Description:
CATH class of the largest domain: Mainly Beta
Number of helices: 2
Order of helices and strands: HHEEEEEEEEEEEEEEEE
Mean pLDDT: 83
Keywords: Membrane, Transmembrane, Transmembrane helix
Structural class: mainly beta
Shape: globular
Strand content: 35-45%
CATH architecture of the largest domain: Sandwich
Radius of gyration: 26 Å
Distance between the termini: 71 Å
CATH topology of the largest domain: Immunoglobulin-like
Low-confidence stretches: 10-17, 19-34
Transmembrane segments: 15-37
Protein name: DUF4352 domain-containing protein
Number of strands: 16
Number of domains: 2
Amino acid sequence: MTEPHDGRGTPRRPVAVPVASLLIVTVVGIITLLGGLEEAEARPEPLGQGAVLDQGLYSTAFVEARVNVEKAELSFEEDKRFVEMVFDVTNLGEETVSVGLPPAKPEEAGFGHSFANSLVRISPAIKKDKGPFAFALAGDEQTNQLHPGLKTKVIVRYRLDPGEQPPDKITLDVASFEYAPGFQDETVRWQLISEAAGESYVPTVQAQVTLPVKAGDPP
């Protein structure tokens, strides 16, 4: 940038603008456009199929989402079709815990420490009375237990209506756990990492996981 002419036919010398000042202005502008540095940092981590997430109490691999068809046992019964989300879950704690169920709403997750309690939102939303259902597999048997140090396959699923098409993809908002004192007392225990929302607390979404849904047999 150059100073104005001095009126005597001789232009004044250039004025140097510090590079650091320009950088500060640029960074401030970028932060403003992003809605602020704090808001940008608060965005959950986007993950996809095959990702592994450290949830504090669990190490979770997001294996796949699929359509599973259970054939009817009797001729007058209809086949049952389910959309299933498949996880490999390792209990990193020292006690056996339950698989649990995803909450109907994030604010209903409460302070439980079951695995499925951390799936605070499933999109598209599951229809009423169609699920969700959740269980772990121990060989050929279903169980609700996750034992310490063991990697266990967990299925979370819901039923499709006759003729209903499954979604192309499923998105999960996933929270994590911390071993810390409770909000209401000083008991140290595993609980969902949460943040204030008005007069209550809701789980903090650590990651947003999107899984393509593998189609099964046609309805």
